[in-house]
Amino acid sequence: MKDVGIALSGGGVAGCAHLGILYGLEKENIPVRYIAGTSAGAIVAALYAYGYRPRHMIKLLPLINKELVDYDYPSFVRAFLRRGMRVQGLAKGERLRYLIAETTRNARMTDLPLPVALIATDLKTARPVIFTSRPFLSPIPGADVITDIPVADAVVASCAIPVLFQPIHYQGRILVDGGVIDNCPIGVVKALGAEKTIAVRTREAAPVESSFDSLLAIVKRVMSITLNIQVKQQLKEADIVLQPEVAPDTLLDFTQTVSCVKCGYRHVRERMEEIRRVMENAAEGVPL
């Protein structure tokens, strides 16, 4: 079997399905040698590259809750009371940074033993910024590549959903969610060295019944539509595309973490025969 790489998409809480996917692959002895992720996928990719196995990450699920969204109420009040005060996002992202720093013992990207890449977007240049544990085997056109950064900072930058989270300022860049520009980084995981790739997409922009009567509801829907349009072209690059059918509107529904894991596991089990066939044929040089 050739070296397998996996690209994990963003999608908020729906990204917990990635844990089920990885757990299913591990149980079937399909080793993932390369991994890349965006937003929620970046959290999973970083922890996996650090050394956490899927079963270990599943045990961390109780820490993935609404308390991670640390709303910046003092800034709201100052912006309301003072002219000229501006609010760049509803939440600061510091609690997520602390969680990743604790679980990775303040590791830097270059400390990670597995080839991994996490994607963010630079608002200034409209270019992808890729945080990676090692140099790419082939260049990524138009991307800025950074290796010397704490894992926690890279994850928070990749997860900085516009409006919801404040942008991350780093070395003159203004960074937001990688999903703005590359929500399922298949090309990136190939550039790391993967010979065959699995793409995991977790969110669809299916029709919903909603009045969209809040800022958050509008932001969530706009992100869903944007990612849905963008990722269709990207998925054509993958050898296998996994699309677990998570419940709709799970972006910040922290009550759905376990059900999303189960959904991912069921889906990979259903597709396992196909996955094995593609990987084994690739190893034998048989055209797909």
From TrEMBL:
Protein name per UniProt: NTE family protein
Domain of life: Bacteria
Domain PNPLA: 6-190
Protein's UniProt keywords contain Transmembrane helix: yes
InterPro entries: Acyl_Trfase/lysoPLipase, NTE, PNPLA_dom
Motif DGA/G mapped to chain: 177-179
Keywords, in A-Z order: Hydrolase, Lipid degradation, Lipid metabolism, Membrane, Transmembrane, Transmembrane helix
Residues forming the catalytic site: 39 (nucleophile), 177 (proton acceptor)
Pfam families, sorted: Patatin
Short motif (GXSXG): ranges: 37-41
Species of origin: Planifilum fimeticola
Motif (GXGXXG): 10-15
GO biological process: one example: lipid catabolic process
SUPFAM superfamilies membership: FabD/lysophospholipase-like
Molecular function via GO: hydrolase activity
Transmembrane segments: 6-25, 32-52
